[in-house]
C-alpha cells in the first residue's frame, strides 16, 4: 500500500515536471468546462428545450416545429450554434436575457410561447451552463420560419401589453422556512420545469395569473385538461406517497396512475432524465402544495337519465374494460392503473377520461418502463352513448365522486386533434 | 447412482431445460401481446387483420418493413392521426421489438377478397403484377415483392392478406405523395406511373390471391431489385 502510494507520488511529480504548471491549469479548466457542459445538458433536459426546438425528423435544436395557438401558428427557432441562422453569435449575456427577460439580444420581444415567465427564475449559473452546452451542438444552417399569426396578434408590440399583465421578471426566492430539498423542487417546478405553462389556467389573452398558479386548466388547441396541482380533487399529490410521485415523474407509471397526453411528452423528453435527488425534490414540493379537502361533485344530469346511463355503462365496462382494470376498478398497477379512487377520472372536467376511452394510448417508453402496456382506442367500436355511459360509470362507481357526462360531451371530443 | 441412472437424470434435466425455454418464450410472446392490446381493435389478434378493409394485416411482414413504418408513423411522415398519436412517445428499441413481434406471428390468412370487378380487369391486374409494363416504366410487382408476393427481408412487405380497398388507398397515397419512404423512394416512382385503372386492376387481383404453401418473406438478397430502394437499407434513429 505504502509503496504504491510512493510510486503514485513519484509519477505525480514526474507528470508535474513534464507538463508544467500551466498545462495543469489548462487541463483543470478543460475539466471544469466539461463538467459545466454536462450540467448544461442535464438542465436543458430539465427545461425540456428539445420538445419544442426540434421538429419531427429534424436536426437536434434546429427548430421549425409548428406550435398551433389560439392566435395563429408559431414556429420554433433554431438554437444551434450556427452563426447565420442559429444563436452562434450570441454571448452568454444574450442567452440569459432571453431566459430572464424574454427579449432577443437586440431587445426585440419574444412571444410568450417561450416559457420565459417561468425561465426568469432560472439562475445565471444554470443559464450559463445551458448556453455552454448548446455551444457544443452541431451547428445547423436552417432559417427560422416566419410565424403565421392572425391579425392583430402578428403585431409584436402587443406583447408589451401581455408582459405588463402577465410577466413578472425575477429570481427564484427560496423559502427559508422550508428544507433545501423542498426549495430545490420548487426551483425546478416553477423555473426550468415550466409546469405552470399548462397547469396554471390560461385566460382569453393567453396569460396566466400568479394568484391562480398551478390551479389547472384546459390546454388551448390540444383539448387536454391540465389538472390542478394544488387540488387533491384533481392532480394534487397531497395524499400520494413520495415513491408513487417519483415513479409517475420518472417512469411515467405508478401504483396510483399513469401519465398520458401532453404529460407523456414531458416525461418522455424531460423528466425521465432527471436524477433521483431532483425527482424526489420535485415530489416533496408537489406533495406540499396540495393540501385541500375537496368537496364531492354534483351531477349535471337528471336522475332518471343518469341511472339508465349507468346500467349501460356497467355492461360496457364489464365487456371491454374489466379484463385489465378489474371488475371493481382496482386495476393491476402499475401497468393497468386503478380507476377506483383515481383522481384523473373524477375531476369536474371529464375531458381526459373521455379522451382516454376514445383514443387509448401508451404511457411513454422510459428508462424505468421501456416496454409500456397500451390501452386500445375505443372510438371505432363504441358509440357516443356507450362512451358517455362507460365514462359516467367509472366516474361514479367504487366510491368515485365524479359526475355523469352526456353523449354530446363524448361526441365533441371525437374531433379533438390527436397530436 | 449407476451410469444409466446418471444418463437418465441428465436427459431429464436437458428436457426440462428445453421445456422451460419454450414456455419462457411463450410467456414473453403472451406478455408482448398484452402490451400491444392497443393495436388489436384495428389490426386484429396477432396482427391478423380484421373485417375492416382499411386496416392492414401485420402478421408475418418483414420486421424491417414494419419497423420503418413505425418510425414513419411516430415522426408523422406517414400520416394517420390515431397511429401518430399512439406511437409518439415510444423509443426506438421498443418499436423494433413491436416490429419483430408482429413479424414472427403467423395466424392463417383471411379468405381471398371476393372481387366485384370483371374477369378482364382481373386479367389486366395479373399481367401488370407478374410482367409489368416496361414501356411505361412499370416493373412487375413480383420483381420486388417476390414470386409468391411474400416480400423480401428486411424492408419489402408481402402483399397477401390485404383487401383491395387498402391496397388501392395505399397506391393512391404513393401516387399523390402522401405516403413516402426513405430516398430513393422506388415505390413512389412506380406508383407515379400507374393510372387509376391500373390501381383498380392491381388492387383487385392482389386481393384475390390465395395463400402459398410458404408464407415467409424471402431472405435478404434472394433476388436483385429492378430499382434501388431506400427502404431496403435499415433506417437508424436520427
Quick summary:
The complex is a heterodimer of chains A (419) and B (238). Chain A contains 16 helices and five strands.
Keyword list:
heterodimer, A: 419 residues, mainly alpha, Cytochrome Bc1 Complex, Chain D, domain 2, 3 domains, three-stranded antiparallel β-sheet, 4% strand, globular, B: 238 residues, 10 helices, 50% helix
Rg calculated over all Cα atoms of chain A: 25 Å
- In the predicted model, the low-confidence regions of chain B spanning at least 5 consecutive residues are 10-21
**Largest sheet composition of chain B:** none
Tell me the CATH topology of chain B.
Cytochrome Bc1 Complex, Chain D, domain 2
How many structural domains can be distinguished in the coordinates of chain A? Answer: 3
Strand content of chain B: under 5%
Low-confidence stretches of chain A: none
Approximately how much helix is present in the residues of chain A? 40-55%
Could you say which structural class the secondary elements and strand pairing of chain B correspond to? mainly alpha
| Overall morphology of chain A | globular
How many structural domains of chain B? Answer: 1
What would the average pLDDT of chain A be, to the nearest integer? 90
Structural class, judged by helices and strands of chain A? Answer: mainly alpha
Report the C-alpha radius of gyration of chain B, rounded.
21 Å
Helix/strand order of chain B: HHHHHHHHHH
Overall outline of chain B = globular
The helix content of chain B is: 40-55%
Q: Find the biggest chain interface.
A: A-B, 30 and 28 residues
Structure characterization notes:
The complex is a heterodimer of chains A (419) and B (238). Chain A is mainly α. Chain A has 3 domains: 18-142, no CATH class; 180-288, no CATH class; 303-415, Cytochrome Bc1 Complex, Chain D, domain 2 (Orthogonal Bundle). Chain A contains 16 helices and 5 strands. Chain A has a 3-stranded antiparallel beta sheet with strand order 1-2-3, with no helix packed on it. In chain A, strands 4-5 form a two-stranded antiparallel sheet. Chain A starts with a helix and ends in a 7-residue tail after the last helix. Chain B has one domain: Cytochrome Bc1 Complex, Chain D, domain 2 (Orthogonal Bundle), CATH 1.10.760. Helix content of chain B is 50%, strand content 0%. Chain B has 10 helices and no strands. Chain B has helices at 3-35, 40-43, 63-75, 81-87, 92-103, 119-131, 142-145, 164-176, 186-192, 196-207. The longest helix of chain B is centred in the N-terminal third of the chain and has 33 residues, at 3-35. Chain B is globular, with a radius of gyration of 21 Å. Chain B starts with a helix and ends in a 31-residue tail after the last helix. The interface between A and B is medium-sized, with 30 and 28 residues.
Amino acid at each position: 500500500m505504502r509503496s504504491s502510494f510512493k510510486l503514485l507520488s513519484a509519477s505525480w511529480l514526474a507528470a508535474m515536471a513534464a507538463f508544467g504548471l500551466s498545462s495543469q491549469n489548462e487541463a483543470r479548466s478543460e475539466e471544469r468546462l466539461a463538467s459545466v457542459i454536462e450540467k448544461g445538458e442535464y438542465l436543458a433536459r430539465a427545461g425540456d428545450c428539445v420538445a419544442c426546438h426540434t421538429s419531427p425528423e429534424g436536426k437536434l435544436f434546429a427548430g421549425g416545429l409548428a406550435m398551433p395557438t389560439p392566435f395563429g401558428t408559431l414556429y420554433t427557432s433554431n438554437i444551434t450554434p450556427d452563426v447565420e441562422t442559429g444563436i452562434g453569435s450570441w454571448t452568454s449575456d444574450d442567452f440569459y436575457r432571453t431566459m430572464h427577460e424574454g427579449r432577443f439580444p437586440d431587445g426585440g420581444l419574444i412571444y410568450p410561447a417561450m416559457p420565459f415567465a417561468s425561465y426568469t427564475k432560472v439562475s445565471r449559473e444554470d443559464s450559463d451552463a445551458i448556453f455552454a452546452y448548446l455551444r457544443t451542438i452541431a451547428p445547423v444552417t436552417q432559417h427560422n420560419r416566419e410565424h403565421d399569426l392572425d391579425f392583430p396578434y402578428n403585431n409584436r408590440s402587443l406583447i408589451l401589453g401581455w408582459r405588463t399583465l402577465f410577466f413578472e421578471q425575477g429570481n427564484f426566492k427560496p423559502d427559508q422556512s422550508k428544507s433545501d430539498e423542498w426549495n430545490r423542487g420548487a426551483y425546478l417546478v416553477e423555473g426550468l420545469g415550466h409546469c405552470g405553462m399548462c397547469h396554471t389556467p390560461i385566460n382569453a389573452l393567453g396569460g396566466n395569473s400568479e394568484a391562480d398558479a398551478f390551479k389547472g386548466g384546459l390546454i388551448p388547441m390540444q383539448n387536454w385538461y391540465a389538472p390542478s396541482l394544488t387540488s387533491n380533487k384533481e392532480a394534487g399529490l397531497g395524499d400520494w406517497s413520495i415513491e408513487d410521485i417519483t415513479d409517475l415523474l420518472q417512469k411515467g407509471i405508478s401504483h396510483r396512475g399513469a401519465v398520458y397526453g401532453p404529460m407523456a411528452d414531458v416525461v418522455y423528453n424531460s423528466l425521465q432524465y432527471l436524477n433521483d435527488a431532483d425527482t424526489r425534490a420535485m415530489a416533496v414540493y408537489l406533495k406540499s402544495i396540495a393540501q385541500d379537502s375537496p368537496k364531492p361533485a354534483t351531477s349535471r344530469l337528471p336522475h332518471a337519465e343518469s341511472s339508465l346511463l349507468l346500467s349501460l355503462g356497467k355492461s360496457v365496462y364489464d365487456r371491454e374494460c374489466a379484463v385489465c382494470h378489474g371488475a371493481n376498478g382496482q386495476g393491476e398497477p402499475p401497468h393497468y392503473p386503478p380507476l377506483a379512487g383515481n383522481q384523473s377520472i373524477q375531476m369536474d372536467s371529464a375531458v381526459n377520461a373521455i379522451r382516454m376511452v376514445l383514443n387509448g394510448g401508451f404511457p411513454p417508453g422510459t428508462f424505468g418502463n421501456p416496454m409500456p402496456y397500451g390501452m386500445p382506442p375505443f372510438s371505432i367500436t363504441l358509440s357516443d352513448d356507450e362512451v358517455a355511459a362507460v365514462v359516467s360509470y367509472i366516474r361514479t362507481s367504487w366510491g368515485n365522486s365524479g359526475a355523469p357526462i352526456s353523449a354530446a360531451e363524448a361526441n365533441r371530443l371525437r374531433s379533438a386533434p390527436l397530436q | 447412482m449407476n451410469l444409466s441412472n446418471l444418463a437418465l437424470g441428465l436427459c431429464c434435466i436437458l428436457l426440462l431445460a428445453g421445456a422451460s425455454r419454450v414456455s419462457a418464450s411463450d410467456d414473453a410472446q403472451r406478455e408482448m401481446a398484452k402490451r400491444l392490446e392497443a393495436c388489436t381493435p384495428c389490426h386484429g389478434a396477432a396482427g391478423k387483420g380484421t373485417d375492416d378493409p382499411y386496416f392492414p394485416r401485420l402478421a408475418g411482414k418483414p420486421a424491417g418493413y414494419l419497423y420503418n413504418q413505425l418510425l414513419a408513423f411516430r415522426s408523422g411522415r406517414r400520416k394517420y392521426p390515431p397511429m401518430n398519436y399512439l406511437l409518439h412517445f415510444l423509443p426506438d428499441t421498443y418499436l423494433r421489438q413491436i416490429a419483430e413481434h408482429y413479424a414472427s406471428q403467423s395466424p392463417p390468412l383471411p379468405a381471398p377478397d371476393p372481387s366485384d370487378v370483371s374477369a378482364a380487369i382481373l386479367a389486366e391486374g395479373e399481367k401488370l403484377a407478374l410482367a409489368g409494363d416496361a414501356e411505361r416504366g412499370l416493373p412487375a410487382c413480383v420483381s420486388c415483392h417476390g414470386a409468391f408476393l411474400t416480400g423480401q427481408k428486411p424492408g419489402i412487405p408481402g402483399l397477401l392478406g390485404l383487401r383491395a380497398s387498402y391496397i388501392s388507398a395505399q397506391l393512391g397515397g404513393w401516387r399523390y405523395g402522401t405516403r413516402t419512404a426513405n430516398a430513393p423512394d422506388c415505390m413512389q416512382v412506380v406508383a407515379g406511373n400507374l393510372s387509376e385503372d391500373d390501381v383498380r386492376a392491381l388492387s383487385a387481383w392482389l386481393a384475390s390471391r390465395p395463400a402459398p404453401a410458404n408464407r415467409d418473406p424471402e431472405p435478404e438478397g434472394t433476388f436483385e431489385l429492378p430499382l434501388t430502394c431506400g427502404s431496403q437499407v435499415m433506417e437508424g434513429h436520427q
